[in-house]
Amino acid sequence: MDALLTFVLVVLLIFFILRLLFPVLIRLFIRRVTGFNAHNHQRPNQNIAYKKGETTIISHGEERSEVPKELGDYTDYEEVKN
């Protein structure tokens, strides 16, 4: 009977400690994950201050054509309504 009472008390003590530590551990985990993502996904132009009404074009690299230039000329057609 004494061993059963000791076991129950130890289990209750473990649950009580986990109940107190679990929110703290979750907060630390969330801070670590969000800090890691914010650090790795910063924009290079993030520190530039833009004025209100100003138009800004940010280039993300050179656009590549799907059709090679050696294949022929590109013709842009317009729709003509009768």
Account of the 3D structure:
This protein has one helix at 2-40. The protein is mainly alpha-helical. The protein is built from 1 helix and no strands. The mean pLDDT is 79.
Q: In this structure, how is the largest beta sheet organized?
A: none
Beta-strand portion reads under 5%
**Total beta strand runs:** 0
Q: Can you tell me the overall shape?
A: elongated
Descriptive terms for the model:
82 residues, mainly alpha, 1 helix, 0% strand, elongated
Layout of helices and strands, plus pairs?
Blueprint: H1 2-40
What's the short version?
This protein has one helix spanning 2-40.
